[in-house]
Amino acid sequence: MADALLDIPCVTLGGEHKKLGDFPGKALLVVNTASQCGFTPQYKGLERLWQAYRDQGLVVLGFPCNQFGKQEPGDAREIAQFCESNFGVSFPLFRKVEVNGPGAHPLFAELKRRAPGLLGTQKIKWNFTKFLFDPRSGTVTRFAPTTKPEALKSAIEPLLKR
């Protein structure tokens, strides 16, 4: 079953062109991130999820965003260095994107359409909003910025290869 979500082009911090379809059959956790946010320590929990579940079929994908309080001012090199040195991040990180408004990256436009927020809003309220994609059903589940990565285990585990 073809899924248009998997064909949306993205660019990693290192400049590599990727699509979600480059991770076939994997459960995908897509997160808009920021380096100077109160939720920034969630990088550590996201890395723990990546380490615990990547061999079973989870891919964590971070998309830095500067739309909320200008909390991601750095360039690609600075973002990569910050994430690695402060939180040991080894999961894929992508170039800075907008998640709301007319400049919203097509990936986030589609994720918001498939998994609207509270009261059906398509807007992302803050950094570290999380979207979990089930490769089998094509279902997207949204989690609030306040939802800690470790709280996602019960949603992730049923999507993994056993």
From TrEMBL:
SUPFAM superfamilies: Thioredoxin-like (SSF52833). InterPro entries: Glutathione_peroxidase (IPR000889), GPX_AS (IPR029759), GPX_CS (IPR029760), Thioredoxin-like_sf (IPR036249). GO terms for biological process: cellular response to oxidative stress. Coiled coil: none annotated. PROSITE patterns: GLUTATHIONE_PEROXID_1, GLUTATHIONE_PEROXID_2, GLUTATHIONE_PEROXID_3. It holds the Pfam family GSHPx. Keywords: Oxidoreductase, Peroxidase. The active site is at C37. GO terms for molecular function: peroxidase activity. Belongs to the glutathione peroxidase family. PANTHER family: GLUTATHIONE PEROXIDASE. This is Glutathione peroxidase. It comes from Pseudomonas xantholysinigenes.
